[in-house]
Amino acid sequence: xxxxxxxxxxxxxxxxxxxxxxxxxxxxxxxxxxxxxxxxxxxxxxxxxxxxxxxxxxxxxxxxxxxxxxxxxxxxxxxxxxxxxxxxxxxxxxxxxxxxxxxxxxxxxxxxxxxxxxxxxxxxxxxxxxxxxxxxxxxxxxxxxxxxxxxxxxxxxxxxxxxxxxxxxxxxxxxxxxxxxxxxxxxxxxxxxxxxxxxxxxxxxxxxxxxxxxxxxxxxxxxxxxxxxxxxxxxxxxxxxxxxxxxxx
Amino acid sequence: xxxxxxxxxxxxxxxxxxxxxxxxxxxxxxxxxxxxxxxxxxxxxxxxxxxxxxxxxxxxxxxxxxxxxxxxxxxxxxxxxxxxxxxxxxxxxxxxxxxxxxxxxxxxxxxxxxxxxxxxxxxxxxxxxxxxxxxxxxxxxxxxxxxxxxxxxxxxxxxxxxxxxxxxxxxxxxxxxxxxxxxxxxxxxxxxxxxxxxxxxxxxxxxxxxxxxxxxxxxxxxxxxxxxxxxxxxxxxxxxxxxxxxxxxxxxxxxxxxxxxxxxxxxxxxxxxxxxxxxxxxxxxxxxxxxxxxxxxxxxxxxxxxxxxxxxxxxxxxxxxxxxxxxxxxxxxxxxxxxxxxxxxxxxxxxxxxxxxxxxxxx
Lengths: 249, 363
What we know:
The complex is a heterodimer of chains A (about 250) and B (about 375). Chain A is of the alpha/beta class. Helices cover about 35% and strands about 25% of the residues of chain A. Chain A has 9 helices and 10 strands. In chain A, the strands form 2 sheets. A 6-stranded mixed sheet of chain A has the order 6-7-8-3-9-10, sandwiched between helices. In chain A, strands 2-1-4-5 form a 4-stranded antiparallel sheet. In chain A, helix 4 packs parallel to helix 6 (about 145-155), helix 5 packs antiparallel against helix 6 and helix 6 (about 145-155) packs parallel to helix 7. The longest helix of chain A is centred in the last third of the chain and has 16 residues, at about 175-190. Helix content of chain B is about 65%, strand content about 5%. Chain B has helices spanning about 1-15, 20-40, 60-70, 85-90, 105-110, 125-145, 165-200, 200-205, 210-240, 250-270, 275-295, 305-315, 315-330, 335-360; strands spanning about 45-50, 75, 95, 115-120, 155-160. Chain B has a 5-stranded mixed sheet. In chain B, helix 7 runs parallel beside helix 10. At the A-B interface, loops of A face helix 8 of B.
């Protein structure tokens, strides 16, 4: 298992990335590196540039400067071949309100071209994990916030990705569902998936293997959560951001 | 009171920020006025006339000259075919056929009988023709030949393709063509706009599929819907209005498929400009209105000013309406089919190229 993991190391290397929209600088000179085996958290308040960063990684936006290199076992790859490995769960409502849980799964099966055997196995495993098996016929529009996000995660995991990008997946989700969601993410990381998620909830930062702290398009710091807190002499990430606000004034 | 003012102000701000809505509100009435007043008249003009007689038939020649001079009729290019065949082939709208030996001699013998052969596919045109011709002929006889007594000519009128001048027969094929266009345009552009409005488009473009997959996935289901729609209308025509189907069924289906190219391409092209379903609906109103008015589906193209005739010639709906009407009522030949399908495929390819270039898989 360990050998298998090291065989398949995926890396995303971002250097001096910049993106502006008119007068607004959404990202300014951002560099970071993501590697298989860890759960990365992009932490920052609204307007920090988290969504823009994801969209740039997915090449849904074109950067103004800087570059993103995709590596497989330290060998650079073209994005077109790399894209198949990435599953993305957008921040906005990304599911079809009229389609049921079951219909979503079969739509995403076709969308990602998953073969029937893998699909049947994955489907059972995911339904069991999310406990959505009792709601197969319920339309996505009628699911609760937590169930909706779980369905989104399930659709993303269906294709056995090597990388998962989750844009504020726990936003608006109740505390219990959030805890379940985190344990699902941890399972994914243990299976050797590179997970990158963004969140505006500072308390979630401490659950990540590594965090990138962002504010107004700037990168404030990156590394293991505990070390960052110790260096800044604060007890938690709420204080980290609040203290920064004070320094600015 | 001030609450109401605040409300009104908010609505006006929203309106000003939506360029497509603004265009629909300001440009549409202007276009409507121009086109409605210029292009839309039920009076038939520029009807293509051929005559069949012997070379030295004086009265017939005078009648022909007067007809062309009246502005209602126009000459059609010299034909290899006989006058009757020209009408049957759709190359002329009306044929005036003199009795054996010519109209002049026949009148001298006191037994003037003139045959009028009218293509009644277009009911509106056909209804005017007989009246126009009778007026012109009696004018020639009384003013130039000084034959003043009661009209000595007996008219024998034959209506081809729609002998009862059944308006439904004329309208139903056109309605089916228009409905095919409307269902394709509306369903496709609104469904793409809905993906954008709801944010689900992000899921699609981040999936490992090409933009061609997305476009085909968003159009093919609605082509089926439009296909079913078209058959429902034909069935209604057949069941309630006794309409017969005179042409090739294969040709009918192939015409539909050819029309799907420009229609779906237009829908995709429109969708590249819109972000919400409301914008898509407003854009549709503009496009459908123009396509309908400038198609000859209900208002004859022949009466429009030349520039509008050209615009209506590049309108795919014009050619699809021609095809549907001629296949159903006349059983059009493959020559006719090839000409109009050619225009559909050409215009469709151009629109599709523009739409594909504009359709981005970035946000």
